[in-house]
């Protein structure tokens, strides 16, 4: 263990950020300037005095040129291959933070950053919701509902999508996913550039 993982396998965000900042040869101030955040924010995260939101951690990581997936992936890199077995999908669920805690899972196929495309296998338990605060990020995303029903809101429009239905939109539009049905819902989606 490199000191950035806790005993339960969770990543120690502060220790990991400090290790990566040091590896990049940056001071806390230099990283803060690159990321456009207050110097104190980097210090508070590294020392564990503050637990960053997904949005603030994404902003800090932009100063290192890293995605959230790269930040949380502390395992060995997969050998290059066009094939990704089910047991090698990367679990990105922790990146959701409190959104849908324990009710939504996200698993990524391969190295999204290397390909400029993020492909996800998503599951939503009955009632699972990405939250009242709508998601917004640079890029485009689309997907196909492979099981169950998903209520998708994009901007002012809301629709219930069923198995076989699909969606495609500009991710800068505020959006939200919710499972209104009594059974688990499943989506295979893609986003470019990678969001998480």
Automatic annotation (TrEMBL):
What InterPro entries does the record point to? Cro/C1-type_HTH, Cupin_2, Lambda_DNA-bd_dom_sf, RmlC-like_jellyroll, RmlC_Cupin_sf, TransReg_Diox_bact_type
Task: Kindly name one Pfam family recorded for this protein.
Answer: HTH_3
This entry carries the following GO cellular component terms, namely: cytosol
Keywords from the UniProt entry? DNA-binding
One GO molecular function term of this record is: DNA binding
Q: In what residue span(s) does the HTH cro/C1-type domain sit?
A: 17-71
UniProt key word GTP-binding: no
Which PANTHER family does the entry mention? HTH-TYPE TRANSCRIPTIONAL REGULATOR, HTH-TYPE TRANSCRIPTIONAL REGULATOR PUUR
Q: What is this protein called?
A: PuuR_1 protein
Recorded source organism is: Jannaschia aquimarina
């Amino acid at each position: 263990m490199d000191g950035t993982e806790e005993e339960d396998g969770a990543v120690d965000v502060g220790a990991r950020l400090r290790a990566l900042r040091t590896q990049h040869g940056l001071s806390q101030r230099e990283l803060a300037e690159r990321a456009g955040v207050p110097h104190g924010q980097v210090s508070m995260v590294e020392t564990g005095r503050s637990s960053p939101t997904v949005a603030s951690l994404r902003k800090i990581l932009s100063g290192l040129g890293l995605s959230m997936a790269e930040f949380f992936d502390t395992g060995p890199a997969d050998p290059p291959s066009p094939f990704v077995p089910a047991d090698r999908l990367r679990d990105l669920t922790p990146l959701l933070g409190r959104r849908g805690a324990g009710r939504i899972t996200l698993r990524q196929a391969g190295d999204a950053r290397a390909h400029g495309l993020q492909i996800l296998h998503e599951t939503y338990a009955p009632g699972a919701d990405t939250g009242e605060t709508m998601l917004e990020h640079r890029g485009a995303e689309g997907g196909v509902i492979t099981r169950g029903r998903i209520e998708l809101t994009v901007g002012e429009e809301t629709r219930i999508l069923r198995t076989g239905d699909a969606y495609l939109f500009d991710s800068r539009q505020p959006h939200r996913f919710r499972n209104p049905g009594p059974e688990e819902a499943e989506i295979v989606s893609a986003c470019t550039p990678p969001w998480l």
